[in-house]
Structure formats: C-alpha cells, structure tokens
Amino acid sequence: MFYRFARGILWALVRVLFRFRVEGAEKLPQGGGYLVASNHRTNFDPVFVGVALKPTLTFMAKIELFDTPLVGPLIRALGAFPVERGKGDTGAVDFAVHTVEEGKVLAMFPEGTRSTDGTLQRGKTGCAVIAGAAKATIVPAAVCFGEKLRFRTPVTVRFGDPISPKALGVDASSPRTFRTGTRLIMSNIAGLLEKGIG
Q: What is the arithmetic mean of pLDDT over 88-110?
C-alpha cells in the first residue's frame, strides 16, 4: 500500500518537474516475474523507471544508501534491498533470484554506477547471472534526456523487446555466457538510447 501511495505522489511530481513520457509499455510481460535492465545517469532514474511501470518494483541498491538517515528507511519501505558492490554479494544475488521466482519485477542498472557523461558504460554481469538463475525474461529500458536534467526537461523512458532466457543464453557452468549475455543486454539498451528522447 505504501508503495502505491508513494508511486502516485512521485508520478504527479515527475509530471510537474519534467516533460515525461513512456514508450514501449505494451512490450512488458503480463504477469510473472521478470527483470528490467536500464541505463543509469542520475539519482532520479529509479523514480523514472518506477513510475513508468504499474507493477510494484523491487530495486537492488548500494548498501551505503541504507545507512543514510531518511533515505535508508524510505527505500526499504519502497522495496529496495542492499548489495555490497564489488564484493561478490551472493546473499543479495540469491535474494534477487528468489524475488523474480516469486513472480515479482526486479529493476536493475547493469552499469553498476551512474554515468557521469551520459555515455553507456560497460555492463556488470550480475543482471545476466540473476536472469539465468531465475530463468527469467529481461526487459531492456532506457531513460533518455538531453545533456543535463533540469526543470521541464523532456524525459522519455523507453522499453524494448523482452529478451527471453533462451535468447540470453546463460549457462551457470560457463562464466563466458555471463559476459555474452551482458553484452546482449547492453546492446539492447544502447539501441533504445540511440532513438533519442522521442
């Protein structure tokens, strides 16, 4: 209930602050768990992706945010869970896999951190690993805007064609497939970004 309430407020706020639009929502799977993999440029990105999707999202967020007053309790209430970046946090990965297997929607930013210049960075393999373990579909997404995010900036959240587990081709016994799957995910996100703001 809190998530729905907060999403409603944030949706109204986003529409006031920015010229916001969503493209490709008809491509989203209907029912069942899946992952949304998006580029990452600003702290607003989780909000943009969250308000663009009707299902309740679960976010993987860096553990440092959970120690921040106000922010920590808020993001926990909104369904985020912590991950220790760069330390092989298997607990967070297991939780993420279980989340998707339960039929929930998991949102991830495969770059692992924000891009300072807007250029899509090399993706981390975590998204592919989780999707492979959960045998889940990945929906590529792109948050598109100009050079800087300012008041009334046009912002488009664009969803692409879902990537099936078969197309992703991840095999737990072959780390090479994690890298191949990650390149496929990032290539799809790059294609969405190339279409511009719309």
A: 91
